[in-house]
What does this fold into?
Amino acid sequence: MTEDRKILFVGIGNILRSDDAVGVVIAQRLKEKINIIDAGVSPENYLDKIIKSDPSQVWIIDCLDFQAKPGEWTIFRPEDLVDKHLFFTHNCSLELLCDYLKKNIKADIFILGIQPESTKFGQGLSKEVEAALPKIEKRLINLHTQNEGKLRRR
It folds into this structure.
């Protein structure tokens, strides 16, 4: 049955805090192209939906301060959250979110972290983060397409 399970993307962010909105912006821009949830600032409210969808992979997209240049992005595993000094601004920490998901679904979990320029109150992404979006979105669409292709070739 594992072959029939899909990738689920989850965008997290606060649209009132500049670059912190990046996960939500990506979710809104890609909602017609990939299987994505716009979880806003409260991803814990979507745990039941995530679990019921029974994905093979969960990709959490969020603004993370990992001491890189604004707009840079990288992929983390949940265990990286403990080892690295990462900063996120949501009601529920990503570490708690990932722990809960790992206990309730059999899915690989990844965090696509995007380095902010600012998370101060204000609307709109910085030019550096905005400039990174096309490459990030292309990567997510490719992940989705590759997974769908595997399902069709079954």
Remarks:
- The longest helix spans residues 127-153.
- The chain has five helices and five strands.
- The radius of gyration is 15 Å.
